[in-house]
Amino acid sequence: ENKMVYVRASATNLCPAFDSIMVNLAAVNAEADPAEGKACREMETQLSITNLDPDDQLTFVWSPALDPIANPTVTTTTSTVYTATVTNQFGCTASFSIPLTVTQLAVAAEVTGPDTICIGQTTTLLATATGDGTVFTYQWTPANTLINEDTAEPTAQPQETTDYIVQVTDENGCVDTATVRVHFMSGECVEPYIFVPTAFTPDNSGKNDYFIVRGLNITELYFVVWDRWGEKVYETTDVKAKGWDGTHNGRELTADAYAWYVRARCGNGAVYTKKGNVTLLK
Prior knowledge:
Layout: E1 2-9, E2 17-24, E3 30-33, E4 37-40, E5 44-46, E6 48-51, E7 59-63, E8 73-75, E9 80-87, E10 93-103, E11 105-111, E12 116-118, E13 123-131, E14 136-141, E15 146-147, E16 155-156, E17 162-170, E18 175-185, E19 194-195, E20 199-200, E21 214-215, E22 218-226, E23 232-236, E24 247-248, E25 251-252, E26 256-266, E27 271-280
């Protein structure tokens, strides 16, 4: 804005003299955006000083130090007041403050069911969000092996060992992620997924009372045990069999080493065969 200033001057007994001068009132005319705002922790937020006088050529100095431009971006973890000192081509200056309040959001993820599952089994995951928000949305990936993948507590049924990532967003648009791993045991016919114990104690204690091949997904089985004289003392093809209880023809056998042979087919079609010895302990 321009303004004309008039001056009248006179000396004693002299006629007054008049003059005028045009004064340019060149104050900075701008505004800050946001005047007051919220920022998500560790997410970019843009600050802006808008020049309301298109004839002005402005320069910018920010504190804390930022790029000397009108619209720098900031990434902050704590609430901060940013101040811009703005100068136009006439040397006039003005200061603008932009206080940013950082909105906190943190997400933790865990496996609340078994963290190791076999074929056909499921487990449950859980995301826990904390912070300044009150409304949270959830999105888990990969979603193709999840049920209710848009909730805090989905059900997982992976077909391989899988890392599940949950992304949580609050009502302020702030985002955080967390990851959990579910291990998958596919039932291969290889150790340690399938094995035969080296000893057992048939004493009706409820622990290690039966001798049997153990595996995750055995679909066919032939299992046989002989004593040291080559007499067959146990034989089964039942994949659900409890196993040998240490008896033969209703008679408890003595503590000794017994030979065995196993042939098993697993759910993936592979076959496991092995022979060895087991110790019957009394």
